TrEMBL record:
This is Polysaccharide biosynthesis protein. Its main location: membrane. Keywords: Cell membrane, Membrane, Transmembrane, Transmembrane helix. CDD domains: MATE_SpoVB_like. It is a multi-pass membrane protein. GO terms for cellular component: plasma membrane.
């Protein structure tokens, strides 16, 4: 019995690691593409860059909220419920769930797209330039819910490759379209920067088409496998169509609120920052727009690369926890909870501290020298805030995987109220740093409530988490110091040859610092065996290849 439990735990961890590897690779590559395009984009926009980037962010935040409403949490709900029925060997119900979900996805997509398009003048925040941006983004909402639903269906089968690859294809096509249109409008035809931004946001629709085609190819290739699983199912459960719709909707609603969590916080910033700053300062609208771009768009675009690591973990955790809950295996749930948190700490803490260390050259590499010092400081602070943001993404997904939906929503609402309480004084006295502070406080409250609830109901493997956290924090600190020294040394040496604050020197310093810091952290993690707690037997293979004893 003990051997079976150990084997099951190993299989679950292997499944989570394999799934996380696919989702992390797809998410990181997509986020990287979504950030690196900004280098040529900013050059081509010239003096309009910060204004254009701010407009892009203003439109995208509203679009993100409508998109989450359109998706309606259905993909994650489908992934969870498909995994649940697959664990019962009732594959036929999973396919019926997917088909019913498609009807809902198409319906919510059409309704949300129409509201965004025709309601744009009512939600432009007093900035008429936002209207054409929202019009261009409405088209993407027609397709993305169906695409996301199909990804959720594959995830319910623990098949993460289709999701990861389609995500990468979607982003690649989107970025290509953005860059081509930006170059043509701004450099070739010397056109209007607002139109260039509108085409950059319309790229979301073009990318979504490419992602949907990729998923369709995968589905057609595996259709016979799905049919075979249905043919060999128990086929003993019969769920009426109305019950299927009810099941999808009741599971999906909490996913809407929690999935929109970070977006809701960003919208609070968007609709309060300008008003409070006009009370606190006499800055011009262009100056306020530049400041907003620094924390809400520029820094956010980079920290979302690290937060995407957390998102990858969150997506893989939901179906695995759902299976453990279906089996009633409380010990397995505790192990899964501990594995998820340990893997999160192992990746997120060094990633966040590493970005803090290279904030200066990284900010110059992506955004040039406009507001150089302030931009680097905002990015440093944002990197720290990314830890509670990433943790929220992971543990809220854990709560949903364990059917603790209502409780998770309640905890998020508490954190939102805390955010609102601190928002005005933080912005008034701290300026561009204020929204980051209030977000950090609000999410820390939510995270504490969720972790306390998980511990009371299901428990954690305390020893695993305690040892893991202490060692990961210590090695991440070593890595941070080494990376910071490398940055300063690189800038000092380069200034004898070139201006160290240019884009190319900043790229050299960033890459060298990342290599040094990454090697130190990986070496210490492997040497101390802390990596074994996360990757299991694979760590020994890596140690042997690197000749680490």
């Amino acid at each position: 019995m003990v051997e079976n439990d150990q084997h099951r735990a190993e299989v679950s961890r292997d499944q989570m690691l394999s799934a996380s590897a696919w989702m992390t690779a797809g998410s990181i590559l997509s986020r990287f593409l979504g950030a690196v395009y900004i280098i040529p984009w900013s050059i081509w926009f010239g003096n309009y860059f910060l204004r254009g980037n701010a407009l892009y962010g203003l439109g995208y935040n509203i679009y993100s909220f409508f998109l989450i409403a359109a998706i309606a949490g259905i993909p994650s709900a489908i992934a969870k419920q498909v995994a649940h029925y697959n664990a019962l060997n009732e594959y036929g119900i999973g396919i019926r769930l997917y088909k019913r979900g498609l009807v809902l996805a198409v319906g919510t997509g059409v309704i949300s797209a129409a509201i965004l398009y025709f309601g744009a003048p009512l939600i432009d925040g007093g900035n008429p330039n936002v209207i054409p941006v929202l019009h261009s983004l409405a088209w993407a909402i027609l397709i993305i819910p169906t695409m996301s639903l199909t990804r959720g269906y594959f995830q319910g089968y623990q098949q993460m490759a289709p999701s990861a690859i389609s995500q990468f294809v979607e982003q690649l096509v989107r970025v290509i379209y953005m860059l081509v249109t930006a170059f043509l409008i701004m450099q070739v035809f010397h056109g209007d920067w607002v139109k260039a931004v509108s085409q950059s946001t319309f790229a979301a629709f073009v990318g979504a088409l490419a992602g949907m085609v990729t998923l369709a190819v995968y589905y057609l290739r595996r259709r016979e496998d799905f049919r075979s699983l249905v043919a060999h199912s128990n086929n003993q459960l019969h769920v009426a169509p109305k019950a299927l719709y009810h099941e999808i909707i009741t599971q999906a609603v909490p996913f809407i609120i929690l999935g929109a969590g970070i977006t809701i916080f960003m919208l609070i910033d968007q609709f309060t920052f300008f008003k409070v700053m006009r009370q606190a300062t006499d800055y011009s609208n262009n100056m306020l727009s530049d400041l907003y771009a620094l924390f809400a768009v520029n820094a956010n675009k980079l920290i979302m690369i690290t937060i995407s690591l957390a998102s990858a973990l969150a997506i893989t955790a939901v179906p695995l926890l759902s299976v453990a809950l279906t089996r009633g295996d409380k010990q397995e749930i505790a192990k899964q909870n501990s594995n998820v948190l340990t893997l999160f700490l192992f990746v997120m803490i060094p990633a966040a501290l590493g970005m803090c260390a290279i904030a200066g050259p990284l900010n110059r590499l992506f955004y040039g020298q406009a507001h150089q010092a302030l931009g680097a400081n905002v990015l440093t602070f944002s990197s720290i805030t990314s830890i509670p943001m990433g943790l929220f993404v992971v543990i809220s997904a854990v709560m949903q995987g364990l059917s603790q939906n209502k409780r998770a929503v309640k905890f998020f609402l508490v954190g939102t109220i805390v955010k609102l309480i601190f928002q005005w004084p933080c912005i008034y006295y701290l300026g561009a740093f204020g929204p980051l502070v209030s977000t950090g406080i609000g999410l820390c409250v939510t995270n504490w409530l969720i972790i306390r609830s998980l511990n009371r109901q299901f428990g954690f493997e305390r020893r695993l988490l305690d040892i893991g956290f202490r060692k990961i924090a210590k090695y991440s600190l070593f890595m941070y110091i080494a990376t910071l020294i490398t940055v300063y040394a690189g800038n000092y040496l380069l200034h004898f040859v070139v201006d160290p604050f240019g884009r190319i020197p900043s790229l050299i310093v960033t890459m060298f610092a990342v290599v040094v810091g990454g090697f130190i952290y990986i070496y210490l993690a492997l040497k101390s065996r802390i990596a074994d707690m996360v990757f299991g037997p694979r760590s020994e293979l890596i140690r042997s290849k690197l000749r680490i004893k």
